């Protein structure tokens, strides 16, 4: 029993020491890394959101997307997502494993470097759905239960895609104990990387009884200066009202004057046609809905266009399967989608291959005509 590493339980006047317990004893009938991995699968809340963003009144909360998430020919131990659509990669290693010293850092960075190639364009969503479907659960329901029952799931995945494209991710190396040299490497990387958090997470178990223990998660690598440096200037995501959007697209807030004008024109056009839909995001973003109230496209302040292409059986928006196929054909005419795009591979949508400001006046007018046509189309037309 190591008395140099213990915590205390105060029960009345009695101060009871709880000695540290090694993970190597195993839990859930498993041993070593398998037990640690099982903890993350069963209890995502052990990732300490308040330690990740201690100044927030809504710190990160997590939903497991998949265990053994494919990354090319490799697999990541766990992939989580938080309520802001930030993917969190977790790789678990025990202190006695030589890889927990240095190699694991290079390993998880390699996963992150390849994430866009293997997880973008709806691939992460598809892999996560496959994982939960095999367990008889619905991923959308899990996201809503943890984040918000009114969550716009399609828009949420749009945010995930955007964060992934911008390399806004979070990397966590989880272990029972981090060696000093690994701590220094994590602290250095987290301070120097612009968009990505690189963190260590020590999980220590305390208790003298075999069936009961206290779990203490301790985050390594996070500092307030690193938090402030990486936090988006617009802070938390908000629901953008019409007035907020009008202000955001005026007064020189968008450096590209032509883009700002396009955004204002598109916003006013959507309002006049009664097809505007609010968006919950960090940046001033808005969408256009069809007659069933489902989002069909979103516009962001950097000019990115995101058409939603999914449908469900014969009840989907845009006139069901046939309507979606025609929608894609019309967008391909404007070269907004890859000509080789196969709808069978699409789970949610695609970021357009051209930005709003790249369209000339005729192309822009044509885009509005396409949106007007499909926003009025329903599944029984």
Characterization of this structure:
Helix content is 35%, strand content 21%. The radius of gyration is 24 Å and the shape is elongated. It is of the alpha+beta class and 381 residues long. The strands form three sheets. Strands 1, 2, 3, 4, 5, 6, 7 and 8 form an eight-stranded mixed beta sheet that branches. It has helices at residues 32-42, 49-52, 103-113, 115-119, 123-133, 139-146, 153-165, 180-192, 224-230, 242-248, 257-272, 320-333, 361-375, and strands at residues 6-11, 14-21, 62-71, 74-82, 87-92, 169-175, 197-206, 214-220, 238-239, 276-277, 280-281, 286-289, 295-299, 305-307.
Features:
381 residues; alpha+beta; Trna Endonuclease, Chain: A, domain 1; 2 domains; 8-stranded mixed beta sheet; 4-stranded antiparallel beta sheet; 13 helices; elongated
Lay out the secondary structure.
Elements: E1 6-11, E2 14-21, H1 32-42, H2 49-52, E3 62-71, E4 74-82, E5 87-92, H3 103-113, H4 115-119, H5 123-133, H6 139-146, H7 153-165, E6 169-175, H8 180-192, E7 197-206, E8 214-220, H9 224-230, E9 238-239, H10 242-248, H11 257-272, E10 276-277, E11 280-281, E12 286-289, E13 295-299, E14 305-307, H12 320-333, H13 361-375
Compact description:
Helices cover 35% and strands 21% of the residues. The chain is α+β, with helices and mostly antiparallel strands and 381 residues long. It has 2 domains: 6-230, Trna Endonuclease, Chain: A, domain 1, CATH 3.40.1350; 238-375.
